[in-house]
Amino acid sequence: MNQKAEVEIKAPLAGVLRSERMPHIWCPGCGIGSVVTCFAEATKRSKLDHDKLAVVSGIGCSGRVAGYVNFDSLHTTHGRAIPVATGLKLANPDLKVVVISGDGDLTGIGGNHFIHAARRNMDIVVICINNFTYGMTGGQVTPTTPTSANASTTPYGNYEYPFSLPFLADAAGATYVARWTSLHSRNITQSIEEAFQKRGFSFIEVITPCTTLYLRRNRLGDGVDTLQYYQNNAVLKHGADTRETAIDFQGKIIIGKFVDREKPTYLDSANRCNTKFIGDDYQLYGKTPPEKEAEEAAKAAAAAGAPPA
Amino acid sequence: MNIVAADPKGVDAGPHFMDGDHAIAEGALAAGCRFFAGYPITPSTETAERFAERAPEVGALFIQMEDEIASIAALIGGAWGGQKVMTVTSGPGFSLMLENIGLAVMTETPMVIANVQRGGPSTGLPTLTAQQDMMQVRFGSHGDYNIIALSPDSPQECFDLTIEAFNLSEIYRVPVFIMTDETVGHMHEKVVVPPASEIKVVERNLFKGPKEDFRPYGFDSQGGHPMTRAGDGYRFHITGLTHNERGYPVMTPEQNKIVLTHLIEKINGNADKIIRVEEDELEGAEVVVMSYGITSRIAVRAVQEARKKGIKVGSLRLITVWPFCEQKIRDLSSKVKAIVMPEINYGQIVREVERCAAGRCKVVSVNHCGGAVHDPMVILKAIEEACQ
């Protein structure tokens, strides 16, 4: 008797992705799935408590990421993922809050929120999936579309100057800034893991192909051709001056970790300031900042009669 | 519904001399609000300022966001992060908030938004009073939905109704609006804050069952479906898309009907429990003066003068403006000659009165553009004309 063995096939990322929501909506060759895979992998590798991880996204193709990850997840309005994430983080500072969204969402309609969250050093991770296009609405120009590229609303070529997002994030005050392409999956995963460990506004840009719109409209071939382009044109430059990270149409793409600095987060600063003016009556809001922890540990040790460390 | 006494930390009990804006902040703290995201705008800023000042001693957090869009977005995050949340604004800021008022309605997120109204349209009259946003609050965000709006007529009521607004928003999981105005907002009066033990606060109904049984929504046309908060392990998903009980997108006409019916009927079906009005001598009245907010304080004088002249005039003050007291007006319209409605706008809520009266009695709009309250004698004249 030829009996088929019952084999339970478990997807490697089951548990961190919502399997019951598959298949996802993204096109073949799209880079969003690659970024989600890297993110899912990073969450598996990291020691984070998955119950304390929340994902917020805005609107658009990348905005649908929140619906596929098996964490507390909020699919919000166009451009508003960052302020929603800000509220979430401040309401429960124990959370690790990650925003995953697209270039149009985060830097077009949501551009103001982006720079202000970076300025405040809000303790969140922002991953921008940059495919140079508004995909969900059919391939319109975005604030990151390279000059001269064709989009449905720039049918004769884009004549605007694009944002360089690492430069913008750096200038606005982000404590961690990195850029990769969707070819660089191991780097993306590692970057996300690093960002999980950072306290402060961490920004990771991932350049990805939009096969259906951007590539087709600009006659750039398919997803594999784009990965080939990334292979040939990505220039690894850790610590690069973010002023030099602009991307020309089909030009070189500077990748790497550009910024990694320490400074107090929004809540650290709020607690410090309030403690200074209100004194010991002030109850620290949220997690105790590290230096206060050290101070309290020293006090406790002194009270116990131990010599100060 | 779990009703508890207020957390004493947020209650500054005793008599105060304060304006409506400050009273809203005190009401919020007493109701257990511990997260406020705001943006300065006249004539509402004082609420944000008082909350910012009081927050550290209460264990609350105030953040000034980059605009009103971000403020209300932060409230949605804050509420799903487990806090009771509020913001305050006025016309131009309120217009900016409409987008995420829709998201709050769609995701059934409890929050309180105070609109200290000023004259419009656009920048209008930044420092002067109006009641011009009364339709905007009900219909301003796109799509069909329902909300609750309360209209205080004094600083004391700003305090009391803010607590009630928080309680209603928890019960029905809906944004609740305090529709006050510049006059009440900036008017100083005695406000008595009761001791914490006497303030009734509705606690958030958090789901406590097994993870596999959790659903963020229940489309039963009632309020009270339990919610959760990020970090509790239920791995919720919420979206502004038409969704099922799990919060996952289901974009079909059938599901839209299910969601929409629920969103609208959870308020309409409970209207009797929600609506509060104040009646005065409605029995045997020939004419009824109907008003809300600061206008009711002005109408009192007109009613007194009319009574001196022997006119049988009653008054009806809307404390709850939305949902509208439809049945009350249907009943009243078959008993009286006329309903006289002064409002500091070009005639907004009076449209609801006309709709419900359906020709059974005269409905007289005493409309009055923004910038100042009515002259009571104008209302008196309308009463006199109405009863002829």
Describe, in plain words, how this protein is organized in 3D.
The complex is a heterodimer of chains A (309) and B (388). Chain A has 309 residues and is α/β, with parallel strands linked by helices. Chain A has two domains: 19-260, 3-Layer(aba) Sandwich (Rossmann fold), CATH 3.40.50.970; 266-303, no CATH class. Helices cover 35% and strands 15% of the residues of chain A. Chain A has an eight-stranded mixed beta sheet with strand order 2-1-3-4-6-5-8-7, sandwiched between helices. In chain A, strand 5 (176-181), helix 6 and strand 6 (202-207) form a beta-alpha-beta unit. In chain A, helix 3 (103-109) packs across helix 4. The model of chain A has no long low-confidence stretch (mean pLDDT 93). With 388 residues, chain B is an alpha/beta fold. Chain B has two domains: 3-202, Rossmann fold (3-Layer(aba) Sandwich), CATH 3.40.50.970; 279-386, 3-Layer(aba) Sandwich (Rossmann fold). Chain B has helices at residues 20-30, 45-58, 68-80, 91-106, 136-139, 155-172, 182-186, 253-268, 271-274, 294-308, 326-333, 349-357, 376-386; strands spanning 3-5, 14-19, 33-38, 61-64, 84-89, 111-119, 125-129, 148-150, 175-181, 188-193, 200-202, 237-239, 277-280, 287-292, 313-318, 320-322, 338-343, 362-367. In chain B, strands 3, 4, 5, 6, 7, 8, 9 and 16 form an eight-stranded mixed beta sheet that branches. A five-stranded mixed beta sheet of chain B has the order 13-15-14-17-18, sandwiched between helices. In chain B, strands 1-11 form a two-stranded antiparallel sheet. In chain B, helix 10 links the parallel strand 14 and strand 15 (313-318). Chain B is globular and about 65 Å long. Chain B starts with a strand and ends with a helix. The mean pLDDT of chain B is 97. Chain A binds chain B through residues 18, 21, 51-52, 54, 56, 66-67, 70-77, 80, 82-92, 94-95, 112-113, 116, 266, 270, 274, 278, 281-283, 285, and chain B through 35, 37, 56-57, 59, 61, 63, 65-67, 69-71, 73-83, 85, 99-100, 102-103, 229-241, 248-249.
